[in-house]
Amino acid sequence: MEILSLKGVKKNFKKTKALTDVTLSVNSGEVLGFIGPNGAGKSTTIRVLLGVIARDGGDAKIFGKDVWKHPEEIHKRIAYVPGDVNLWPNLTGGEIIDFFMRLHGGGDQAKKDKLIQKFDFDPKKKAKSYSKGNRQKVSLIAALSTNADLYIFDEPTSGLDPLMESVFQEEVKRIKEEGKAILLSSHILSEVEKLCDRVAIIKNGKVIETGTLEDLRHLTRSTYRVETKEVANGLEELPYIHDLKQDGKTLVFQGENDKVEEILEILKPFGVHALQTTPPTLEELFIRHYEGK
Ligand SMILES: Nc1ncnc2c1ncn2[C@@H]1O[C@H](COP(=O)(O)OP(=O)(O)O)[C@@H](O)[C@H]1O
Ligand SMILES: [Mg+2]
Asked: Whole-model pTM?
């Protein structure tokens, strides 16, 4: 079921065109990775979704309702973790978690206690003494203890150490299995690669690519390592072979993923001793997009 949908969303800040065309959707039981470098428009998109700022164009719906017209109904059913968590300095972490949970009908106290343990968090200290990572933990524990239908995380692990990152990943898997919808903005590609069913790539305020990791890999190239019996020639002229490096009978190149058969045909006459292909990582896909194509 479609939980969240943005179509052609635009947002300007005076002369800055922060969002020019944001189109994406998230279904229940799905994690959508929302990736792009700093300044691409991830947080602005999320602020539009939360109804914090008004959009200048396009459609934005959560649970089938316009985010700007029905914020109260929508907010009861979503949990949000901002990238930069601000807290009341004189309340303790525990008090703030309870306050956030009460905004969502109380949440689950047993789940909260378990999360406090898992995240190795001390809830008794005042918020002013917390590091960025600890402030994020406050927001994460509160969000993950509430029973929402949609979870929005804006670069949630940027202040967490790797151990805590993996706790977060386990929890995201848990809520996904419960059938929740999750929008995870991130520039940590390994995290997105581990957790997400689909990704949307945003560049300069525009979503330029959406799909499963499989889909996106399909659009791109794999690395080929080949040992031939005879020295191969003529490969550098082929339009679907790129970055060819040849050392005698050893070849390394990038082959376009929809040209596998052609590549095998070309190699065959030289005799193939060994062949290894490696699909691109999300990192590589991403770099290619940002180099501009
Ligand atoms: N309140 C604001 N006023 C003016 N410009 C803004 C404001 N918020 C964001 N921007 C600009 O909009 C663009 C997108 O920013 P942002 O959504 O924060 O990117 P991301 O979260 O992907 O790093 C940037 O160019 C940023 O400088
Ligand atoms: Mg941001």
From this structure: 0.86
Mean pLDDT of 33-53: 94
Closest residue by CA, ligand 1 atom 10: 18
Ligand nearest to the CA of 158: 2
Q: Would the pLDDT of 233 be above 80?
A: yes
On whether both 190 and 283 belong to a single domain, the answer is no
Q: Write down the mean pLDDT value for the chain.
A: 92
Could you say which of 187, 216, 245 is where a domain stops? 216
pLDDT in tens, 104-134: 877 889 999 999 999 999 999 999 999 999 9
Residue 185 has φ and ψ, to the nearest 5°, of -85, 140
CA-44 nearest atom, ligand 1? 17
Residues 199 and 227 in one domain: no
What stretch of H or E contains 17?
strand 16-27
| Domain around 260 | 220-290
Ligand positioned closest to the Cα atom of 53:
1
Q: Is the CB of 13 under 6 A from ligand 1?
A: yes
Work out the average pLDDT over 217-239: 90
Q: pLDDT grade, residue 291 (50/70/90)?
A: confident
Indicate which residue's Cα is closest to atom 27 of ligand 1. Answer: 39
C-alpha of 210 from chain center:
11
For strands 221-228 and 206-212, give the pairing.
Answer: unpaired
Looking at 167, 188, 216, the residue that finishes a domain is 216
